Amino acid sequence: MCGIIGAVAESAIKPVLAGLGRLEYRGYDSSGISILSNNEIQTRKVQGKLNNLKNMLSVQPIDGDCAIGHTRWATHGKANVINAHPHQCGQVSVVHNGIIENYLQLKQQLLQWGHHFKSSTDSEVVPHLINHYLAQQMSQEEAIEKTINQLKGSYALGVLINGDSNNLYAIKQGSPLVISQGNDGAYMASDAMALGADSGKIYYPKDNELIKINSHEIKLCNSSTNKKIHYINNKHCTKVISKGEHSTFMEKEIFEQVDLLKRLSVNNHASDYSKINFNALNKITIIACGTSYYAASVAKCWFEKYANILVEIDIASEYRYRSPIIINNELVVFVSQSGETADTLAALQYAKSKKAQTLALVNVANSSIAREANFSFEIYAGPEIGVASTKAFSCQLAIFYKMAIEAAKQRAFIDKAELNQLALNFAQLPYIMEKVLQRCTDMKVMAEKLSTYSNILFLGRGVLTAIAQEGALKLKEISYIHAEAYAAGELKHGPIALLDENMPVLVIAPKNELTDKLLSNIQEVQARNAPLFVIGDSSIREYINLQENEFFELPSMPESILPIISAIPMQLLALYSAQMLGRNVDQPRNLAKSVTVE
Ligand code: F6R
Questions:
Q1: Ligand 1 atom nearest to CA at 387
Q2: Which amino acid residue places its CA nearest to atom 9 of ligand 1?
Q3: What is the 309 CA–ligand 1 centroid distance (Å)?
Q4: Separation CA 492–CA 488 (nearest Å)
Q5: Looking at the DSSP assignment, which residues form a beta bridge with residue 159?
């Protein structure tokens, strides 16, 4: 998704380029930079990767002490140089993250006033409006305020204005923005990850606070307030995150899960979860998008099974549009790795407006969702760089598992022995996961065969249906193989029509109370000549004849931790299939790490 960074510092181009580099993980298709020096704004923009911009800057260098930069993830208009940011009009250059929903009306008005547009973006109306008001002798601050009062939608803006002194302005509405005062300069960015080592103190502006940054100061300068900026310490990791011995961040993050879970099992954070009075709750609603939503699906099964709490789950982009009923003593939980997902944030704001108690489960402690919710828990996965979520998923599940144990304890729904067993199962988790990862070459062999197909059907039963869905999502997002997932019992209600020798079916088949039912579903698949692949318990092979490359063995393990463990072969399958097909594993096409538009 779009990323923005701005700097007022000596040779500002350096921190801006470095910041754009740190934003690369979010996914983008073009980039650009504007610099203000000697009363002139100069801009360089390119399509494609940041290296193209660096190459251009080495041929056509620019320098100055006030700069803005942008990585664009196309929404309005194709991914090309003209649509790349910054967009300039007269004395004004702008970078924008978000969507200006009423840009067509604004553009119409500006066209009538005689403005000419170069790009197809929604963003270009912003420098035109500011420039228009500057031409009416408004001050820089007045022109920006007048402009943003007309904008509908969500935005974080970095604005350079050529004037008496070199000023960089930043303002936001609904989209993430962070300001930082360092020793060598002052900075603004859409993501604290973009800030470098010179960013000890940070400030998260509130909606519509206008921040002016120049070489003397950082100032809040809305016409109606004289508030001061209160900085907090930057908790974000500013050191360079490397892939280590791994070929991709995704691979590194998959193999890191063992250590993360070891850490989570030693530090039980029980004092956090016991802050929730589960006995007083009538219902929990869990809201999220994508992979985080599948974590919510698993959590629903755990809370219901072990703590007898009614749990509803919802997709964040749908929640506030379907008139949800919020009852007394309902806890609404928002799960988001990035903590910035626009749909999840908007759903949270909706729930708060209905007076619901809200809890955020995030990987980024100071993220917008963490700050907005009544209280928040961290999942302690550390920065996740690969676009496809892997370790954050396991850590989300791990925290939900612990919360479910706490809920079961408070509500005394299961006896003490069972409760202790759930905790013991959790302690075994990293060691069983290690065994699964040691079998990664078995998954490479399966991926070699599966990646030759264009479509794959995933099946699971019970709580593992969510893992089948997560596996299908992971595979399609990074290998671009079309994959869909169903609860195995649903096969005969429609998807079975797809089965033939070109439609492989991958089944998660552990040994549990649903094994016999699953074996019947597997018979239905084999009877239709569909190639069968199984991730499951060794005992399954007594019933089904499978080649080595059609079977991935899950070690025996307690039922309660099956969802966390069986996600691992799914992640490996996606990784190896994508690698075999020569895909960009860490930055798959069209996707962004942090989805900050609705
Ligand atoms: C898939 C993936 C996405 C995210 C989704 C929500 O691998 O990463 O589906 O899970 O965009 O993101 P967060 O959790 O940051 O709200």
A1: 8
A2: 290
A3: 26
A4: 8
A5: 94, 169
Annotated catalytic sites, by residue? 2, 593
CB 34 within 8 A of CB 166: no
DSSP state letters, 388-426? S-SHHHHHHHHHHHHHHHHHHHHHT-S-HHHHHHHHHHH
Q: Name the most confidently modeled range: 266-275, 511-520, 537-546, 551-560.
A: 551-560
Kindly state the helix (H) or strand (E) to which residue 307 belongs, with its residue range: helix 290-307
Per the structure block, which two tokens stand in for 443? 């998954």
Query: Whose Cα sits closest to atom 16 in ligand 1?
Result: 336
Alpha-carbon distance of 506 to 54, in angstroms, equals 44
What CA–CA distance (Å, rounded) separates 249 from 254? Answer: 9
Judge whether residue 269 has pLDDT over 80.
no
CB burial of 267-296 (b: ≥16 within 10 Å; e: otherwise) equals eeeeebbeebebeebebbbbbbbbbbbbbb
Amino acid (1-letter code) at residue 456: I
pTM of the model: 0.85
Q: 299 C-alpha vs ligand 1 centroid, how far in Å? A: 16
Count the neighbouring beta carbons within 10 Å of the beta carbon of residue 484: 16
Number of CB atoms found within 10 A of residue 501's CB = 9
Residue 75: φ, ψ to 5°: -120, -60
Beta-strand ranges (E) seen in 257-328 are 283-288, 311-315
Integer Cα distance of 157 and 6 in angstroms = 10
In 10 A of CB 464, how many CB atoms? 28
The answer to whether the CB of 564 falls within 8 A of the CB of 379 is no
